[in-house]
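Dear support,

I submitted the protein below through the web form. The confirmation email said the job was done, but the results page showed an empty box. After a refresh the structure appeared. I'm attaching both so you can tell me whether what I see now is the final result or a partial one.
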Amino acid sequence: MGNRRKELKAQYKQRKVTGGIYRITNQRNGRFYLSQTTDMQGTHNWFLSCCASALCTHPCLVREWDSYGKEAFVFEALETWEKDAEQSNGEFASDLQELFEIWDSKLPQDNRY
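What the results page shows now:
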């Protein structure tokens, strides 16, 4: 059992890490939440979990999630970025911050959470 666990841990560490910029939009009123993540799949899974349970845990979204319901919200990966093998986690996060700033300046500032 111990070897299997080590094997799974090694596989997890060798997986490709993809981060990026995402937006969660309330389709009923057009408001949106823009953010970055170092784990796009994990963030998308969190959103799907919120939809499955009908409970949103994000403080910016919870009030309108409760008012409009899960059906009103959509998750959109605006741009993904794969982490280089030689890149540190800090460097990866810094690159994503720069990417976020580009998206932040491109999208309208009004109607955001």
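Response: this is the final, complete result; the empty box was a page-load delay. The chain has one domain: 16-106.
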